[in-house]
Design goal:
Elements (H helix, E strand, L loop, with lengths): L1 E6 L12 H8 L4 E6 L12 E2 L9 E2 L1 H9 L8 E6 L8 H8 L3 E6 L7 H7 L2 E3 L10 H12 L32 E2 L2 E2 L9 H19 L11 H9 L3 H9 L2
Parallel strand pairs: 1-2, 1-6, 5-6, 5-7
Antiparallel strand pairs: 3-4, 8-9
């Protein structure tokens, strides 16, 4: 997969894209990430990429020409590509959207700045807008990094181990259970005994129940989209949780 990031602050990306999982995925050629400086496509002497808004008002608006020229210079890769503008106006990014994006050949992420982007550019060139939450950032760069990270870890081979992306929170409308490592006793607190038992089925069951409890307590809204197998329903019944989970699922 290829991800192109268009920004007036290309240095923003250097360190985050050169660490950890993303770095490994880039080195393994699982993902090809290219950064483009919109300023390089500004046509005037001062390399201006923003200007005052028509009609007056606070702040500056990103000019359409440098954005369009920069976007046009990005080669299209594969058959399935999308041009996405990071902006607080878009629908909220989710694990489901990360999965959708991970199925594409190319994501072109445009980082807006200032008070916004000239609407004509968005209308003509942008397939969709994408927000990472109901708050306003100084620009789309951090949001583009969030999207890049969430997508990258879903690509086959990116995590190294076979299936840990599937066990992440949200991949099944459930929060992830707590995790423990050595030492077995920390400040008087013990690791749950079942995790030391070596009984894999008991460990899976314990983790599933803990995930459900955590989700019920912190994000009951997620339970609505959670489909439970017969075996899972049986476990929840034995734990005395099934009725409560079903009530939460039925709530509007
Ligand atoms: N740019 C500014 N705020 C943003 C947000 N919440 N999500 C995506 N892009 C943004």
């Amino acid at each position: 997969m290829r991800i192109d990031l268009l920004s007036i602050f290309p240095d923003f990306f250097t360190s985050p894209l050169d660490e950890g999982i993303i770095r490994r995925a880039r080195l393994a050629q699982i993902i090809d990430i290219r950064i483009h400086n919109i300023r390089d496509y500004a046509c005037d002497r001062h390399q201006m990429t923003d200007d005052r808004p028509y009609g007056g008002g606070e702040g500056m608006v990103m000019k359409p020409e440098p954005l369009a020229a920069c976007l046009k210079a990005v080669p299209r890769y594969g058959e399935k590509h999308r041009v996405i503008l990071l902006s607080p106006r878009g629908p909220c990014f989710s694990q489901q959207q990360a999965l959708n994006y991970a199925g594409l050949d190319q994501l072109i992420l445009i980082c807006g700045r200032y008070e916004g982007v000239d609407e004509r550019f968005t209308e003509r060139f942008v397939d969709e807008e994408c927000s990472i939450g109901d708050y306003v950032l100084s620009g789309g760069e951090l949001a583009a990094l969030v999207v890049t990270d969430a997508v990258c870890r879903l690509l086959p081979g990116a995590l190294g181990c076979a299936d840990s992306a599937e066990k992440d929170s949200f991949s099944r409308n459930m929060l992830k259970h707590g995790q423990y490592t050595r030492p077995p006793v920390f400040e008087g607190m013990e690791v749950p005994a079942v995790l030391l038992s070596g009984d894999h089925a008991a460990v899976d069951r314990h983790r599933f129940v803990e995930s459900i409890r955590l989700t019920m307590c912190r994000r009951p809204d997620l339970l609505k989209g959670l489909e439970l197998s017969r075996e899972e329903r049986k476990v929840l019944k034995q734990e005395g949780l099934l009725t409560q989970v079903e009530q939460m699922q039925a709530r509007v």
